[in-house]
Design brief:
The protein is an all-alpha fold and about 280 residues long. The protein is about 85% helix and about 0% strand. Helix 6 packs across helix 7 and helix 8 packs antiparallel against helix 9.
Length: about 280
């Protein structure tokens, strides 16, 4: 057991020496923002070990398939390599994927979170109590988890409230949340009106939502025009063309193909129409 631990330590040390320092630094930042508990070096060593072990396994699969299933060895080896490539890509990009998920999750609920924060501020709730309230609202998702991190800095790590806000601003994966806690911190330091800040940020995000809704409607209108041209007018044109060709050549082949295309288009249109009705 002790010998195994020594061998494992030697392997980990060898792998750690080949990992670039810039990569370690990058992953340290990503791991903190992604709220992943593992250290960057530990995560990278494990990822490299899985990559090396997986490469050895792929070679063994290729050799075994070549000798025992020669007719299918190319297909088996290709499938195994594809699975290996996807798994390794996911393993090395998992922190970045997690950061993007947090960023998107906070952005999605930001207007709702600001509305709640503004209401609490109007009611005279202090800034630290407001953060605690936001952290307890599970419906806010990633925003609530980022708020809980502020509380963790205070109660688990001994930060005062302003220092916890500053730390959260630096390590948050979401620029929106960073601006939120930064605004609260500056409002306290400058003794300015926190309620006014929250109101301004709420109006700002409402304007963004209105602009996005307008842009979405414009894009939907363009998509509808394209949909009519491609999915409706074009199949009908093909149907008419096929009918004319069938009549002139005394053949039903072009007519049958055109009718099949028209019926298929109608089925697709009906399916998506029902989905849209269900979502409205």
């Amino acid at each position: 057991m002790i010998r195994y631990a020594g061998v494992r330590s030697a392997i980990d040390g060898s792998i750690a020496r080949i990992i670039p320092k810039a990569t370690v630094k990058k992953y340290e930042d990503l791991m903190v923002k992604a709220r992943m508990n593992a250290g960057a070096m530990t995560y990278l060593i494990s990822a490299y070990e899985y990559a090396i072990g997986g490469a050895i396994l792929i070679v063994l699969v290729a050799l075994l398939s070549y000798f025992f299933a020669h007719a299918f060895w190319v297909m088996i080896s290709s499938a195994a390599f594809l699975i290996y490539a996807i798994a390794i890509y996911y393993l090395f990009t998992l922190p970045e994927i997690r950061v993007k998920e947090i960023k998107h999750g906070v952005e999605y609920v930001m207007p709702d979170a600001l509305a709640i924060a503004y209401s609490l501020s109007l009611s005279g709730v202090s800034a630290d109590s407001m953060i605690r309230e936001l952290a307890g609202i599970k419906e806010l998702g990633e925003f609530a988890k980022e708020s809980q991190r502020v509380n963790s800095f205070m109660f688990a790590m001994g930060y005062d409230f302003l220092s916890a806000l500053e730390r959260s601003e630096k390590v948050s994966a979401s620029p929106d949340f960073s601006r939120f806690v930064s605004g609260i911190r500056l409002s306290i330091l400058l003794n300015s009106d926190l309620t006014a800040f929250l109101r301004d940020r709420l109006e700002y995000y409402r304007r963004i939502q209105e602009n996005r809704s307008k842009l979405s409607l414009d894009s939907l209108g363009l998509a509808a025009e394209s949909y009519v041209a491609v999915a409706i007018a074009f199949p009908i044109l093909l149907y008419l063309t096929g009918s004319i060709i069938s009549i002139r050549n005394s053949s039903v082949l072009f007519f049958a193909i055109s009718m099949l295309l028209l019926v298929s288009t109608a089925i697709v249109i009906g399916y998506f129409t029902e989905r849209i009705r269900g979502e409205v």
